[in-house]
Amino acid sequence: MKISKVVMVSMIVGIISFCGVANSAKAYSLTGAWWNKGKIEWRYENYISYRAKQMYVEGINEWKKKSIDAKISSGNKVVCGERNINDTWDGLTCPEYKTGSLEFKSQNVFLNKCKKQTWSSDGALKSVVIHEFGHVFGLADTSKTKNIMNGSTWGTKSRYGTYKLTTPQKDDISGVNKIY
Ligand SMILES: [Zn+2]
Fold first, then answer.
1. Ligand 1 centroid to 8 CA: how many Å?
2. What per-residue confidence (pLDDT) applies to 25?
3. Can you tell me the distance from the alpha carbon of 77 to that of 66, in angstroms, rounded to the nearest whole number?
4. In principle, which of 69, 98, 159, 175 could form an S-S bond with 150, CB 3.0–4.6 Å?
């Protein structure tokens, strides 16, 4: 995928999450998108480091341990990779939808090796994987909440820097179960 497209998607996701937070008093926010029958099938991109693989598995397992109504298994719909891009994001999810709907067709998830502060920390990177998989389900970012969907990994009232979250929280789970 071209960098320009990744940046564009990033901006769109930013706008969606802003609207979501503004309109909702809940501690979760939904994008309105969903997977048919709640079936999420994922695999690694072909060329991906052992570290990224390990973190994807650990992060996804945190969701599997929770009581969620979405089903996670292996397949080709969600492709998990890594990039080395000098930009502000440490994780990114780029969805494609079925024509004329918000039903997911496929998604690409990326971890950004260039963000060393996150990449070099097991806890932070795992929190990013869990966060990005929240987007995979159809959750939007929340701001400054003590939830895995808090869009900030670092800084004031951040998901990992402040709250050290490495597992989905009650509101994150409620959000997923609202969709499926
Ligand atoms: Zn996010």
1. 14
2. 53
3. 22
4. 159
